[in-house]
């Protein structure tokens, strides 16, 4: 055999040895899965237990996958999270699995930062979309593609000052009440108690045209055409209704202080706030001097008793190197009933799984934290509010468009402009902005 | 000298493209760092439509790929400049690499394809492959246009990163970037003009060379005709000379002898009755003169014989011819005979000439490497065969040197056969007048 042949054979053997070595090494090497999360609550309420659920999930996951470690940076506050995550994305260090703030979702999905989950969902026989609340799942959809899964959801409820209603001799409205009922109550309770000529008791605070439009069945945005529709009768009626309520207050501004003092009957409140302020220790800080409860939003003549549902989403990086593991972990956080039950235990929102939220166990956990005299929110009502709620439309400039609309509509109401024509002008202005 | 200038151009193109690629990737990386340090990452995300996957990997990747591009350039330019297969292979690799680099850069810069086209122009001369490659490259320049692609695909844009800076810096950056892009195109255009000029120069050179060649050809033709004329003249002169020689020989020998004989016989006629004794003496003298005349004629005929035959006997002459043939050509000649080769001069002549002609034919037309010459005796005749292992002659045509042979054999009342199917075989049967010696 020639010398050349020896060299070639040695080289081939060396390459084979190296390749097999690398292969076996890769098999036993620890895979690190990056997880992006923020500390504290997504619902702007205090939360001391933000890492409990995640730590538990990580422990479960690492037990199942011995060679996988999940790493996350602790201590990133919600306010800083968007910037932190954007920085990671820019630097090419996007975590494999991460929480997505609702303000970021549209942007991230449109930039291709998020992995489309449709294929993973199709492949996974154990996964059933129908187990999620419809609204929660839709929150993670962008232009018909599922880019994120819901982790925790929070519907908006209507806070009711029971003490004040009782004083005025009015009963707590039923869950299918209407605008007319709301207007009646507001009209009745809006008065000057101490006789100084200034109103000091009000019907409602912080209820805006968007809430009203949503309960009147208005579809504000056309997601495909990137257009807002403000000239629809349903929207016009909603704005007119808000104007009527505003007019009751005699141009006086209702403030959070009025509400905290117990001088306002109604206020929209998130389910997270409800849970936080109903339980010790926060309940002693706020709303101590009156009894309160939560009910649904009043229905307009063309809509139902629905309200906006906010959902905390989690997604997978489109460039993840560990697609299967990332999917398993995402599923564990969002689809596992045990972990989802922990949302009731350690967080302030509700589970995104229908079965968990409507379970007796969830109800018991909610009850556990409350005084015996307090009535827990009905699990059927909670499920209904979540399932039937509305979700912010998937439009890139949604927040900006709504900000313009808010400003314009406030002007219409304050300066008593013609509602129909002013809304048309406003609609044109916003559509021009959206087209840019 | 020309090739060296082309190489300078190509090196310049490579350098400018490397600068462009480095600028795009490094600039994006540095700007990304700045954006992050200024805490406007989220805001920036809101203003772009796509992002590079990993800015630092893009630098390594594109520069690494560019390194391979330089490597193929060196291989093509300096190591195997004349190997067509390697040139095409490296051009193909270059094309693929450029497309990959351009897509790594998200089509923000596609000038690198000009480099590929420049190489294609330089290396593929006038072949069909050239036009195919050119077409594909030009098409890819059109296709990889950022503005067009960004309509349908999510691509990051260097302009988004440039807009991070204040207006003044933006102008400088855009200015620099545009200068790099235009310089690349400018060098490419100058290069193309240069190539075209150079090709025109080559065409002129080819034309003048062709003209020279045509002239030389003409001269050659003329010389050839003169030579033919000269050879015809020479032949004629040779013939005349030979005739004169023959005439002189006949005159000197036969004429002289016959004159003597005729005078002697006349004397005998007048003398025979008066003096028969004297007449007898006279006749004896005539006989002697006649014999001498015959000898004289033989000597003359001998003078007219081929060189070797003149000096040697037939067998030695044949051997001599074979040795000379083997010496002069790369052919083996095997000679075999069972006959005592001693014949009349005309017969010897014919045999010698037939063998000589056949050897010449076998070597010249048959390209034979081995020839067998055989002379056997038959009934009142000899059989001469000359066989070779050459290419033979499927379609027998007279005049391939065979006419002479036939004529010579016919003169001796012999027959000759030619067979060109397996090599070439000449079989001649010559009737021999054994014993008919002159003396």
Automatic annotation (TrEMBL), chain A:
Annotated InterPro entries: Bact_solute-bd_prot1 (IPR050490), SBP (IPR006059)
Keyword Translocase: no
Pfam families: SBP_bac_1
Protein keywords: Cell membrane, Lipoprotein, Membrane, Palmitate, Signal
Designated name of the protein: Carbohydrate ABC transporter substrate-binding protein, CUT1 family
UniProtKB/TrEMBL annotation, chain B:
Top-level taxon of origin: Bacteria
Transmembrane segments: 12-30, 59-79, 86-102, 131-156, 176-196
Enzyme class: transferase
EC number of this enzyme: 2.7.13.3
SMART domains: HATPase_c
Coiled-coil parts of chain: 196-243
Domain Histidine kinase/HSP90-like ATPase: 346-432
Entries under Pfam families matching the protein: HATPase_c (PF02518), HisKA_3 (PF07730)
CDD domains: HATPase_UhpB-NarQ-NarX-like
Official protein name in the record: histidine kinase
Upper taxonomic lineage: Bacteria, Bacillati, Bacillota, Clostridia, Eubacteriales
């Amino acid at each position: 055999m020639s010398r050349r042949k020896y060299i070639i054979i040695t080289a081939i053997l060396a390459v084979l040895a190296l390749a097999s070595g690398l292969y076996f090494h890769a098999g036993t090497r620890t895979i690190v899965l990056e997880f992006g999360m923020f500390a504290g609550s997504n619902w702007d309420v205090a939360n001391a237990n933000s890492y409990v659920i995640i730590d538990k999930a990580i422990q479960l996951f690492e037990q199942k996958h011995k060679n996988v470690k999940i790493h996350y940076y602790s201590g990133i506050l919600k306010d800083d999270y968007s910037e932190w995550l954007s920085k990671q994305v820019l630097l090419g260090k996007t975590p494999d699995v991460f929480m997505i703030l609702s303000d970021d979702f549209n942007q991230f999905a449109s930039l291709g930062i998020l992995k489309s989950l449709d294929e993973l969902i199709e492949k996974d026989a154990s996964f059933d979309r129908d187990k999620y609340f419809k609204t929660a799942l839709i929150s993670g959809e962008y232009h018909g593609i599922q880019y994120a899964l819901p982790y925790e959801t929070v519907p908006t409820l209507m806070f009711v000052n029971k003490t004040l209603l009782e004083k005025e001799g009015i009963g707590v409205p039923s869950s299918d009440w209407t605008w007319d009922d709301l207007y009646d109550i507001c009209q009745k309770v809006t008065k000057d108690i101490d006789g100084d000529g200034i109103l000091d008791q009000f019907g409602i605070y912080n209820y805006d045209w968007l809430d009203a439009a949503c309960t009147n069945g208005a579809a504000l945005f056309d997601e495909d055409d990137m257009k807002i529709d403000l000239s629809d009768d349903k929207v016009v009626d909603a704005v007119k209704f808000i104007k009527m309520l505003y007019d009751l207050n005699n141009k006086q501004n209702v403030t959070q202080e009025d509400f905290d003092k117990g001088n306002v009957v109604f206020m929209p409140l998130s389910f997270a706030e409800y849970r936080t302020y109903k339980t010790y220790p926060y309940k002693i800080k706020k709303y101590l001097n009156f009894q309160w409860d939560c009910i649904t939003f009043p229905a307009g003549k063309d809509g139902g008793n629905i309200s906006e549902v906010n959902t905390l989403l989690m997604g997978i990086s489109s460039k993840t190197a560990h697609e299967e593991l990332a999917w398993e972990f995402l599923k564990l956080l969002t689809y596992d009933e045990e972990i989802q039950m922990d949302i009731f235990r350690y967080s302030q929102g509700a589970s995104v799984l229908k079965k968990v939220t409507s379970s007796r166990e969830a109800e018991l956990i909610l009850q556990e934290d409350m005084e015996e005299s307090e009535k827990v929110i009905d699990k059927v009502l909670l499920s209904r509010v979540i399932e039937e709620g509305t979700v912010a439309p998937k439009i890139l400039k949604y927040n900006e468009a709504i900000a313009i609309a808010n400003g314009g509509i406030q002007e219409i109401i304050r300066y008593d402009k013609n509602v129909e024509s002013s809304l048309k002008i406003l609609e044109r202005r916003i559509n021009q902005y959206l087209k840019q | 000298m020309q090739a060296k200038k082309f190489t300078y151009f190509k090196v310049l193109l490579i350098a400018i493209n490397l600068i462009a690629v480095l600028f795009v990737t490094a600039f994006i990386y540095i700007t990304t760092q700045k954006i992050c340090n200024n805490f406007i990452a989220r805001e920036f995300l809101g203003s772009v439509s796509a992002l590079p996957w990993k800015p630092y990997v893009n630098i390594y990747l594109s520069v690494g790929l560019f390194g391979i591009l330089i490597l193929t350039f060196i291989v093509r330019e300096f190591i195997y400049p004349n190997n067509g297969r390697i040139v095409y292979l490296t051009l193909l690799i270059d094309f693929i690499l450029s497309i990959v680099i351009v897509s790594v850069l998200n089509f923000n810069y596609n000038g690198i394809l000009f480099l590929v086209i420049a190489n294609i122009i330089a290396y593929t001369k006038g072949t069909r492959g050239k036009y195919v490659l050119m077409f594909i490259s030009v098409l890819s320049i059109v296709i990889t246009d950022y503005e067009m692609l960004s309509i349908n695909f999510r691509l990051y844009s260097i302009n988004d990163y440039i807009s991070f800076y204040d207006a003044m810096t933006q102008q400088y950056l855009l200015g620099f970037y545009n200068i790099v892009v235009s310089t690349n195109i400018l060098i490419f255009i100058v290069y193309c003009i240069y190539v075209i000029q150079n090709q025109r120069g080559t065409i002129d050179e080819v034309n003048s060379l062709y003209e020279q060649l045509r002239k030389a050809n003409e001269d050659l033709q003329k010389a050839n005709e003169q030579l033919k004329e000269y050879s015809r003249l020479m032949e004629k002169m040779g013939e005349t000379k030979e005739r004169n020689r023959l005439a002189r020989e006949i005159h000197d020998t036969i004429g002289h002898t016959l004159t003597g004989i005729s005078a002697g016989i006349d004397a005998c006629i007048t003398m025979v009755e008066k003096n028969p004794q004297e007449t007898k003496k006279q006749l004896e003298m005539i006989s002697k003169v006649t014999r001498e005349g015959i000898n004289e004629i033989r000597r003359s005929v001998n003078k007219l014989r081929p060189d070797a035959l003149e000096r040697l006997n037939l067998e030695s002459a044949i051997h001599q011819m074979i040795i000379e043939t083997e010496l002069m050509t790369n052919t083996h000649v095997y000679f075999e005979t069972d006959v005592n080769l001693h014949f009349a001069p005309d017969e010897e002549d014919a045999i010698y000439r037939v063998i000589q002609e056949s050897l010449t034919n076998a070597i010249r037309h048959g390209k034979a490497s081995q020839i067998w010459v055989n002379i056997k005796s038959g009934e009142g005749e000899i059989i001469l065969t000359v066989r070779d292992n050459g290419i033979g002659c499927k379609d027998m045509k007279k005049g391939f040197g065979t006419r002479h042979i036939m004529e010579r054999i016919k003169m001796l009342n012999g027959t000759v056969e030619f067979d060109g199917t397996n090599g070439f075989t000449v079989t001649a049967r010559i009737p021999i007048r054994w014993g008919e010696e002159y003396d």
